[in-house]
Amino acid sequence: MTCFVYIIGSFKANKLTTYVGWTNNIDERLNKHNSSKGAKSTRGRQWELIYYEECNSKSDALKREYELKNDRKFRSYIKDEYLNAQP
Questions:
Q1: Residues 28-84: pLDDT tens digits?
Q2: Which residue, 69, 74, 1, is CA-closest to 39?
Q3: 9, exposed or middle or buried, with CB in 10 Å at 0-12, 13-18, 19+?
Q4: Do 61 and 10 touch, CB atoms closer than 8 A?
Q5: Closest C-alpha among 62, 70, 58 to residue 24
Q6: Whether 31 contacts 42, CB under 8 Å
Q7: If I label 36, which of 8, 17, 30, 70 is the partner at 20 to 30 A Cα–Cα?
Q8: For residue 85, what pLDDT band results from cuts at 50, 70 and 90?
Q9: DSSP readout, 21-87?
């Protein structure tokens, strides 16, 4: 089963906040986050997909999710890339 680990972003008071998660359907999961049916910490905001990786299994996705959640340097890099791409 193909799974994905992803980073979504949302602006609040001109600050980009990110959230890391995993799923087997990115579009469906993003819709859940944006309709306040996703993770509790993502409710009430509009989110955009800013990064994702494909994983071969749920186990691989969970491991990578853990790594991304704890790798602040990489998340800062992804945030900077996203912000620099904005018009």
A1: 999 999 998 878 888 888 999 999 999 999 999 999 999 999 999 999 999 999 988
A2: 69
A3: buried
A4: no
A5: 58
A6: no
A7: 70
A8: confident
A9: EEES-HHHHHHHHHTT-S-GGGTTS--EEEEEEEESSHHHHHHHHHHHHH-HHHHHHHHHHHHHH--
